[in-house]
Specification:
The chain has one domain: Rhopdopsin 7-helix transmembrane proteins. With about 280 residues, the protein is mainly alpha-helical. It starts with a helix and ends with a helix. It contains 10 helices and no strands. Helices cover about 80% and strands about 0% of the residues. Helix 1 runs antiparallel to helix 2 and helix 2 packs antiparallel against helix 3.
Length: about 280
């Protein structure tokens, strides 16, 4: 029962916040709507996790490639959410290229699954994805390619986390500088919440890097330790969602205030010229 609870906890957290964001979807700005998309992708990802850790082999084999896509999509999507808060005034579909690694590796996984025989699927599932049987050498080509895909996933995921952390922190820092440069009083604007977002970005990145290095098969082999990543991911997801839900000030508000300030300056200049 305890094991089941910890497998479902991150899924429940994401589902809870996704419902709240969907209820306000029409009233939300572009950034919050995009965060809703992020939560939807995360929900599918943790649903696949739930099937994996509860050893539902047939279903997880169907969802494994989906899990690859969602896992490699969440950090690029989170980065672009930060851009919508701090840099971009509207969605720019040119940024769709950040999902190319997720699309390519998940497609590669899907093709391999379609080509594998029932015997190869059985070997890959029970000896590579899970360690139910002793790991051996001399696997068929398709099983070796799937094992290579798992290694590629870890490398790409680690790179995405580090790049999101670096460029995300940079966007937040530059945005805070813009806010301080324009407003004499940054209270209710400069966003202590963006600073909190920065904290959760770092926290989530660290958790993801550790989980990626260890591998989810480790927690499948040691179910008593599953509580650690489950609690950590749940807290990080709750924090990201809470900060995003409470965040009301963004680059759009800053640009609007700057435009209004320019208009006011123009009116004052005309008045001085007439007197």
């Amino acid at each position: 029962m305890t094991h089941y609870f910890f497998t479902v906890m991150p899924l429940f957290v994401v589902f809870f916040w996704l419902i709240l964001f969907l209820l306000d979807f029409r009233r939300n700005d572009t950034a919050k709507r995009f965060l809703t998309l992020f939560l939807g992708v995360a929900l599918v990802n943790y649903l696949a996790h739930w099937f994996y850790f509860n050893h539902n082999y047939p279903v997880y084999r169907l969802l494994d490639s989906v899990w690859v896509f969602t896992s490699l999509a969440v950090y690029p999507l989170y980065y672009y959410y930060i851009r919508l808060l701090t840099e971009d005034l509207k969605l720019d579909w040119k940024w769709g290229w950040i999902l190319i690694p997720a699309i390519l590796l998940s497609s590669f996984s899907t093709v391999l699954y379609l080509l594998m025989s029932p015997a190869e699927l059985d070997v890959f599932t029970h000896e590579v994805l899970y360690h139910n049987r002793e790991y051996r050498v001399g696997y068929p080509l398709l099983v070796r390619l799937q094992a290579m895909r798992l290694v590629l996933f870890k490398v790409i995921f680690a790179m995405e986390v580090l790049l999101t952390l670096y460029f995300g922190l940079r966007l937040i820092r530059l945005f805070n500088e813009k806010v301080h440069a324009f407003y004499s009083n940054v209270e209710n604007r400069e966003i202590s919440k963006i600073r909190t977002l920065l904290f959760f970005l770092v926290l989530t990145a660290l958790i993801s890097l550790v989980s990626n290095v260890v591998g989810k098969h480790f927690f499948s082999d040691h179910p008593s330790l599953l509580a650690l990543p489950s609690l950590a991911h749940s807290m990080a997801l709750f924090g990201i969602s809470y900060v995003g839900y409470r965040q009301h000030f963004s680059i759009r508000d800053l640009c609007q205030d700057q435009q209004e300030g320019e208009c006011c300056c123009g009116v004052e200049s005309e008045s001085e010229a007439m007197t």
